[in-house]
């Protein structure tokens, strides 16, 4: 049976997304590499370059899955901490995700990397209801996660709430391509190649079909910028990668 995603009711979306990521958790990292041709690594590196996480700070990576972004943030903090003389305390990262199976994969990866336990926390929950105090987080990322959330406006408002004044919000997400030629290539990739690869490699065409369809429904760069501003964020901007296949959105709590 098809997910029939277009007909799915809002209240069913969380269950659906939960099922998808539970199924793909074990093969998630390899599939990311295969389907993006390794590009997601460059995109995540770019995200960290834009973020420049402050040494000694507390970073929250929402929809953090298996920790890809969190590991990079931590690495970047540690590099800076080594070269800074007056940093009081070590920075740390919270990986926050709705799916326990994804977090379990992440914990395994963290221990395989020998990451100190006090550097990272893995917390399960919904991005719409963060279990953190107001004004408690220095920086917030959500990478390829916002499109899976049921109420984007609620996620943005809660992100704003937990950020400290001066704190930064960054969202990296598949977005919208304007160039018609690139659009055609992208359509072929997403509607034919991705579901076929999902079937061949993970034996799961439907989950990857869902991922493709969720990208279509995601707000345009302009619309998401407006939503961020409505949530209270300031100095809102975005950067397109590969002509808008991916966009990095930035906003501050001032
Ligand atoms: N951020 C990681 C990355 O860039 O590789 C993982 C992205 S993965 C495509 C999307 C993640 O969003 C999944 O781990 C899923 O469990 C999580 N997710 C979906 N809905 C969520 C929600 N409402 N709150 C928190 N996490 C959610």
TrEMBL record:
It holds the Pfam family Ubie_methyltran. Pathway: Cofactor biosynthesis; ubiquinone biosynthesis. It is a peripheral membrane protein. InterPro entries: SAM-dependent_MTases_sf, UbiE/COQ5_MeTrFase, UbiE/COQ5_MeTrFase_CS. It catalyses: a 2-methoxy-6-(all-trans-polyprenyl)benzene-1,4-diol + S-adenosyl-L-methionine = a 5-methoxy-2-methyl-3-(all-trans-polyprenyl)benzene-1,4-diol + S-adenosyl-L-homocysteine + H(+). The keyword Nucleus does not apply. The keyword Mitochondrion applies. Component of a multi-subunit COQ enzyme complex, composed of at least COQ3, COQ4, COQ5, COQ6, COQ7 and COQ9. Interacts with PYURF; the interaction is direct, stabilizes COQ5 protein and associates PYURF with COQ enzyme complex. S-adenosyl-L-methionine binds at residues 66, 97, 126-127, 143. One of its GO terms (cellular component) is extrinsic component of mitochondrial inner membrane. Its EC number is 2.1.1.201. Belongs to the class I-like SAM-binding methyltransferase superfamily. MenG/UbiE family. PANTHER family: 2-METHOXY-6-POLYPRENYL-1,4-BENZOQUINOL METHYLASE, MITOCHONDRIAL (PTHR43591:SF24), METHYLTRANSFERASE (PTHR43591). Its main location: mitochondrion. The lineage of its organism: Eukaryota, Viridiplantae, Chlorophyta, Pyramimonadophyceae, Pyramimonadales. It is found in: Mitochondrion inner membrane. Keywords: Membrane, Methyltransferase, Mitochondrion, Mitochondrion inner membrane, S-adenosyl-L-methionine, Transferase, Ubiquinone biosynthesis. GO terms for molecular function: 2-methoxy-6-polyprenyl-1,4-benzoquinol methyltransferase activity. Gene3D superfamilies: Vaccinia Virus protein VP39. Methyltransferase required for the conversion of 2-polyprenyl-6-methoxy-1,4-benzoquinol (DDMQH2) to 2-polyprenyl-3-methyl-6-methoxy-1,4-benzoquinol (DMQH2). It comes from the Eukaryota. This is 2-methoxy-6-polyprenyl-1,4-benzoquinol methylase, mitochondrial. The gene is COQ5. GO terms for biological process: methylation.
């Amino acid at each position: 049976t098809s997910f029939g995603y277009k007909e799915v009711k809002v209240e069913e979306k969380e269950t659906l997304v939960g099922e998808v990521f539970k199924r793909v958790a074990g093969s998630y990292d390899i599939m990311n590499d295969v389907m993006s041709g390794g590009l997601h690594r460059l995109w995540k590196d770019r995200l960290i370059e834009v973020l420049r996480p402050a040494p000694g700070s507390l970073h929250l990576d929402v929809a953090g899955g298996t920790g890809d972004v969190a590991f990079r943030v931590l690495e970047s903090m540690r590099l800076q901490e080594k070269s800074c003389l007056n940093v009081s305390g070590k920075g740390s990262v919270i990986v926050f995700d709705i799916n326990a199976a994804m977090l379990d994969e992440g914990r395994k990866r963290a221990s395989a990397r020998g990451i100190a336990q006090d550097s990272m926390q893995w917390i399960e929950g919904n991005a719409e209801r963060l279990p953190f105090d107001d004004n408690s987080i220095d920086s917030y990322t959500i990478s390829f996660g916002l499109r899976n959330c049921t109420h984007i406006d609620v996620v943005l408002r809660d992100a704003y709430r937990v950020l400290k004044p001066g704190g930064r919000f960054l969202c990296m997400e598949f977005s919208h391509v304007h160039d018609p030629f690139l659009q055609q290539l992208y359509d072929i990739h997403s509607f034919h190649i991705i579901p076929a690869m999902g079937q061949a490699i993970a034996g799961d065409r439907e989950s990857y079909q869902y991922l493709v369809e969720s990208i279509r429904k995601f707000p345009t760069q302009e619309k998401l910028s407006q939503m961020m501003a409505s949530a209270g964020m300031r100095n809102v901007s975005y950067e397109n990668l590969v002509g808008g296949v991916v966009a990095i959105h930035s906003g501050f709590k001032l």
